[in-house]
Write a structure and sequence with these properties.
By secondary structure, this protein is of the alpha/beta class. It has a single domain, classed as Rossmann fold, CATH 3.40.50.150. The chain has eleven helices and twelve strands. Strands 3, 6, 7, 8, 9, 10, 11 and 12 form an eight-stranded mixed sheet that branches. Strand 1 and strand 2 form a beta hairpin. About 2% of the residues have low confidence.
């Protein structure tokens, strides 16, 4: 359910665990300021940007969304992103995020539509000599086709922070296993049926699918960091796995230094 924020624009409903996700984004943007300083062109890409503000259902607190979190962190050391690329399937959300950045002096480039479609519009507009950070935070696995990651990973000096819906994989895995035709899991991790033994326990199947997905990323010439953060809800059920992907060792070093920002458990270390 949406609410209007004090600025009259929509704010999306989120759980309190969103604070952990945003804190990792904030910490990484802050930690990478020295790397950004070396590049005249520095872009932030958010293909599921939301409205730019949210409210926490457990506390009714209003908080910044990911585009504003990235903006505030990016300007902390004078190494602000020089370009913001925003996309969302909701035109209302996209316009709200753009307006909120505009009040901060940012003329963000916006793209209305699903990530799988708009990524082809975004990539040609990225400076090939720049440094880029993309956040991918969809609601479910079906909205995170591997094609989006593949295309972004082909861009030189592209770091990716990806939120993988562990809850979706757990809740819907029986349906994915029963369905013979293409489903969300086939979009997320192409070839998983050939790579995974579906006769194992479901927990092992989930892990094998995730490892297959990481191997697909490695096949792109980039690497998913071994430090994968698990975000849980108040009932200690895994909601997301936060995966950092980059080519350069410095980026991986920075991620490992800041990833564990709460008492939530790490999936791997």
């Amino acid at each position: 359910m949406d609410k209007l924020d004090i600025d009259g624009l929509p704010a999306s409903e989120v759980g309190i665990w969103t604070l952990d996700k945003h804190e990792r984004l904030r910490k990484y943007v802050d930690a990478a300021h020295g790397a950004r300083r070396r590049f005249p062109h520095r872009s932030y890409i958010d293909l599921y940007c939301g409205p730019g503000r949210s409210w926490i259902r457990e506390t009714d607190e209003h908080i910044d969304g990911s585009p504003l979190v990235a903006y505030e962190a990016g300007g902390r050391h004078g190494d602000q992103f020089t370009e913001f690329f925003l996309a969302d399937a909701s035109r209302e959300y996209l316009n709200a995020a753009k307006q909120r950045l505009a009040t901060r002096g940012v003329n963000a480039r916006t793209f209305h539509g699903d990530a799988a479609d708009v990524v082809d519009e975004v990539i040609p507009r990225l400076d090939p000599s720049g440094l880029h950070l993309a956040l991918l935070d969809p609601y479910n696995l079906g909205d995170l086709p591997f094609s989006v990651i593949k295309k972004l990973a082909e861009v030189k000096r592209m770091d990716l922070l990806i939120h993988v819906s562990a809850m979706d994989l757990k809740r819907d895995l029986p349906n994915y296993l029963r369905t013979e035709g293409p489903n969300h899991l086939d979009r997320f991790a192409p070839g998983w049926r050939r790579a995974v033994d579906a006769k194992q326990r479901q927990e092992r199947i989930r892990q094998a699918i995730f490892e297959h997905w990481k191997s697909l990323i490695k096949g792109l010439g980039t690497t998913a960091n071994d430090c994968v953060e698990a975000v849980e809800n108040s009932k200690r059920s895994e909601l997301y796995w936060l995966v950092f992907v980059a080519r350069h060792e410095l980026a991986h070093k920075l991620w490992k230094a800041i990833a564990n920002v709460s008492s939530q458990p790490r999936l791997f270390d």
